[in-house]
Write a structure and sequence with these properties.
Layout: E1 2-5, H1 11-22, H2 31-36, H3 38-41, E2 53-58, E3 64-71, E4 89-94, H4 103-118, E5 122-128, H5 133-139, E6 143-148, E7 151-157
Antiparallel strand pairs: 1-2, 2-3, 3-4, 5-7, 6-7
């Protein structure tokens, strides 16, 4: 598996992954809904914008199998896992054919690394009650920062990498 940055050209794939994230427990939504619902659109429209970051996981054939991306949305367009405008809210998902291979763990590790390099002070997400992905988020250092309905908002504080000393 390899990773590459996510960009605007990845919109159709990000929509598929967003659908996977919304349908974590069972088919509840459709791709048409993802493409038309304003609450869903905020996670993809205009990506990548200022403060956004994202990663696509590719299989051995170079095909995308998973993605994680963070949107630094303003409070008036806040998502389900909003903490602050300067803390990107993550969406993460893996296609069914690639699950159980560590793709989601690798994606989270990579986005946390990239966030640290870019000076982001934290990453947030929302996880519904009963979603087994909560354990993945906890292992990656996310902690509950709030509650909204049947979901927890989780925050992963980011420590920037140590400054490199100039070589004499």
């Amino acid at each position: 598996m390899t990773m590459r940055p996510a960009g605007a050209a990845d919109l159709p794939f990000l929509e598929r992954i967003l659908l996977e994230a919304f349908n974590w427990s069972q088919p509840r939504f459709t791709l048409d809904w993802v493409r038309s619902d304003p609450a869903a659109r905020r996670y993809v429209d205009g990506f990548p914008g200022p403060g956004d970051l994202g990663v696509i996981a590719l299989d051995e054939e170079g095909e995308p199998v998973g993605a994680v991306w963070g949107r630094a949305l303003p409070a008036e367009r806040a998502g389900y896992g909003f903490v602050a405008p300067d803390i990107p809210e993550l969406t993460i998902g893996v296609l069914p054919r690639a699950r159980g291979r560590g793709v989601a763990s690798a994606l989270l590790a990579e986005i946390i690394r990239r966030a640290g390099e870019s000076g982001v002070r934290g990453l947030s997400l929302s996880v519904e009650d009963g979603n087994a992905a909560r354990r993945l988020y906890e292992r990656a250092g996310f902690e509950v920062a709030g509650r909204h309905g049947g979901s927890d908002t989780m925050l992963r504080k980011i420590t920037p990498p140590p400054a490199r000393r100039p070589v004499p």
